[in-house]
Structures are given as C-alpha cells and as structure tokens.
UniProtKB/TrEMBL annotation:
<keyword id="KW-0830">Ubiquinone</keyword>
<keyword id="KW-0288">FMN</keyword>
<keyword id="KW-0560">Oxidoreductase</keyword>
<keyword id="KW-0739">Sodium transport</keyword>
<keyword id="KW-1278">Translocase</keyword>
<keyword id="KW-0813">Transport</keyword>
<feature type="transmembrane region" description="Helical">
    <location>
        <begin position="329"/>
        <end position="347"/>
    </location>
</feature>
<dbReference type="GO" id="GO:0016655">
    <property type="term" value="F:oxidoreductase activity, acting on NAD(P)H, quinone or similar compound as acceptor"/>
</dbReference>
<keyword id="KW-0285">Flavoprotein</keyword>
<feature type="modified residue" description="FMN phosphoryl threonine">
    <location>
        <position position="236"/>
    </location>
</feature>
<comment type="subunit">
    <text>Composed of six subunits; NqrA, NqrB, NqrC, NqrD, NqrE and NqrF.</text>
</comment>
<feature type="transmembrane region" description="Helical">
    <location>
        <begin position="298"/>
        <end position="317"/>
    </location>
</feature>
<comment type="similarity">
    <text>Belongs to the NqrB/RnfD family.</text>
</comment>
<dbReference type="GO" id="GO:0022904">
    <property type="term" value="P:respiratory electron transport chain"/>
</dbReference>
<feature type="transmembrane region" description="Helical">
    <location>
        <begin position="57"/>
        <end position="74"/>
    </location>
</feature>
<keyword id="KW-0812">Transmembrane</keyword>
<dbReference type="Pfam" id="PF03116">
    <property type="entry name" value="NQR2_RnfD_RnfE"/>
</dbReference>
C-alpha cells in the first residue's frame, strides 16, 4: 500500500493547481479520497454537529438500497425464467433461451424459475449492463463539470447512479440509459451548480425525460425480460387495471394476472427492476431512519397521504368510475413504485422540504398527488415519479410558508 500511496503523492505534484495537468485534479482527488482518508483539516473556528460527512451519508444510502438491488437482480431473472418456462410449455418457444448474448451464459446455468442461482444470474445479466452504463455516462458528466469548474468530484452521484437503474425496466435500451442519466445529471443538477444546489431529484429527472421522450419503451409491455413472441404478456398490475378496455376490476390482478397481495408485497411481480418489493423498501427505510439520514416524517406523511386519498377514491367508486377507483388502499402500497419512491426519492435531503413542519406538508402533497395521478389519469397508471417532482417544485414554497408562520407566531407570543 505504501507503493500506491507514493505513486499518488507523485501524481499529485503533476495535477496540483499550477502544474501541467491541473485540469485533471478533480479526477485525481476523487480516486485519492476514495482509496485513502484525506489528511486535510479545517482552518479557523468550526461548528461540528456530528461526524457524518457527505461521503458516509451517501454510502449509507447505497447500503440501504442493498435489499432492493438484490431483489432487482433476483426478480428480474425470476420473471424472465417464469415467462420462458410458460412459453415453452404452451409451445410458443421451441426451447428455453433468451435469444441474445445472454444465452451464452444462461444456457449453461438453465432457466429454472425455482433455482435461486439461475434467477439471480439471469437478472444480473440485465441489471449490471444498465448499472455500468449509468456509471460511465453519469460519471463522465460529473468529472467534466468538476474539471471545468475546478471543483472536487461530489459523492452525490453515488446515490443518483444507484437509484436511476432501479427505476428502469430490464428491457430498456442501453443508449436510452446513457441519454436519460445524462439529462438527469446535466439538466437536473449540474446546470444549477451541482449537488446541494439542485431543486429536482436528478434520478427522477432522468427517468421523467425517458418517459416523455420514449414513452413506448417505458410504458408498454416491456416489464419481463423474456423473448417477445406470440402470447407474450408483460403488463404490470397498475397498467392492467388502468386499461380502459378491462371490465374485470381487481379480478384482472388477482385472477387474470394471478397476483396476490403478498406476491406484490415480497416483490414477485413485473415492474421496474428495483421497485417491485415493498419488503425490501421497508428494510431500506429502517436503515435510513435508524441512521437519521432519511426523514421518517416525509415517509409517514407520504404514506398517509397516498393511502388516505386512495381510501376516499375507493369509497367514492361506482359503476361509472374508472377501474383504478376499485383498487383498495392497501394495494396501492405494494404495486408500482410508491414504496420505493417514498423511502428513497421523496426523502432526498436536497430537493425535499427542510423544515420539520414543511416535511409533513411536503409528504402529504406527494402522497395525495401520487394517488390522484394513478386514479384520475387513465393514460399514466403510475404517479409517484410526477408526484415527487411536483413536490420538489413546491418544497421551497412550503418551507417559506412554515417559516413565515413561525415568525408570525413568535411575534404574537411576544406581543409585537
């Protein structure tokens, strides 16, 4: 390790300010601080509140995402193996195969949905390329902006680069992944000055760009990574229920798609790779709340807003109302991306409300808007993404209102 340290110290002389390769200092600094703890100390008076810096905070969020990442790889492979087995059984597929480069590996492992290793490897073959492209494309923009500005590379991309792949379907083209994360990092964050200065969640900004720019690739039956042949069906629970042609009500989920509430809770359903398992999201929420990184006020208020409004819509349902009115409140939590969004996206400390009272209002806005979009809008079955982006936009206004109310209350208490 001394050899590596010496090489880095030698390299520092070539990239430090004023040296020949000073433009590459940001890249050098990122590698150096990743491998070694910086020996820099703060000059002058300091006001240390705790020992948790941004790097440790971001790494803790990535740890909290661990269950969702594992579930993303397992369930993606499980859904694909299950569909391939079904297609072989009904004769639509001559033999079990992926029909692409992954078959070189999967043919030796097998396509057994009851085999944990087969499902995990099959899912990893879809998740890892998307993750790697996200890191390369997003990391490129991070390094470029840091180099041009002469700043250090910020650790905020650790979380953005992990959240973005988890919000995508397994079958999304890799060039769209690169385009989406580029838009999210550049337009959603860097143009405003980088991490800490953005008012929109960068991962959701990139996801929203892909949704509106390539809606057919993001909303059609693309949720199961299996060969597309006659008889193929990959609709999500929300998509199937929101279909105006469907008149089966909740039976389309419980009978036609054969999905139980517990299947949805554990995450054994089609959907975006990291968003299917409510259980994995709960594990992540426990870690974020225990480490005081994620706001429990935002999580709870978003949940209350979403389920409370869903109960009202369900209570008001009638023979002429759209199908989504028929979904009971407790189903809203386990289908779509509500659980993932309220735990990992809505609690973004930069783009969410910052005052304690404002967090309650912000969460209620996100929760109610999520259900509103799901139930009222027949063209878009999922609502958490738009709801959080809307919450990001109004969060400064919410904080301002809370601060003004506090000022007014204190003036009144002091008789001013």
């Amino acid at each position: 390790m001394k050899f590596l340290r010496k090489k880095l110290d030698d390299l520092h002389e070539q990239v430090k300010p004023g040296a020949k390769y000073e433009k590459f200092y940001a890249l050098y600094e990122a590698v150096d601080t990743f491998l070694y703890t910086p020996d820099d100390v703060t000059d002058g008076p300091t006001h240390v509140r705790d020992g948790l810096d941004m790097k440790r905070m971001m790494i803790m969020v990535v740890v909290a995402l661990g269950p969702c990442i594992l579930m993303a790889m397992y369930n993606t492979g499980y859904q694909a193996n299950l569909e391939i087995e079904r297609l072989v059984d009904i004769g639509s597929l001559p033999e079990a195969t992926t029909g692409n480069w992954r078959s070189t590996i999967m043919d030796s492992v097998g396509y057994n949905p009851n085999n944990l290793l087969s499902c995990f490897i099959h899912g990893a073959l879809y998740f890892l390329p998307i993750f790697i492209v996200t890191q390369i494309a997003g990391g490129f923009w991070e390094v470029l902006f840091a180099t041009v500005r002469g700043h250090e590379i910020n650790e905020g991309f650790l979380v953005t680069g992990m959240l973005f792949p988890l919000t995508l379907p397994a079958t999304v083209p890799l060039w769209q992944v690169a385009l989406g994360i580029s838009f999210g990092v550049v337009i959603g964050k860097e143009v405003f000055g980088g991490t800490g200065k953005n008012f929109l969640n960068p991962a959701l900004t990139g996801r929203a760009f892909l949704y509106f720019a390539y809606s057919s690739e993001m909303t059609a039956d693309i949720w199961i990574a299996a060969p597309k042949v006659d008889g193929y069906s990959g609709a999500t629970s929300l998509g199937a229920l929101a279909d105006a042609k469907n008149t089966m009500g909740m039976d389309v989920i419980t009978s036609k798609l054969d999905i139980s509430w517990w299947d949805a809770f554990w995450g054994f359903i089609p959907g975006s790779m990291g968003e299917t398992s409510t259980f994995a999201c709960i594990l992540g929420a426990v870690i974020l709340i225990a480490t005081q990184i994620g706001s429990w006020r935002i999580m709870l208020s978003t949940l209350l807003g979403a389920l409370g409004s869903a109960w009202l819509f369900n209570y008001a349902s009638g023979p002429e109302t759209p199908n989504m009115f028929l979904m009971p409140a407790h189903w809203h939590l386990v289908v779509g991306g509500l659980a993932f969004g309220l735990v990992f996206m809505a609690t973004d400390p930069v783009s969410a409300a910052m005052t304690q009272g404002g967090k309650w209002a912000y969460g209620l806005v996100v929760g109610v808007t999520t259900t509103l979009v799901r139930v009222i809008n027949p063209g878009y079955a999922e609502g958490i993404m738009l709801a959080i982006l809307f919450g990001n936009v109004v969060a400064p206004l919410i904080d301002w209102a809370v601060i003004q109310l506090n000022i007014r209350r204190r003036r009144k208490r002091c008789g001013l």
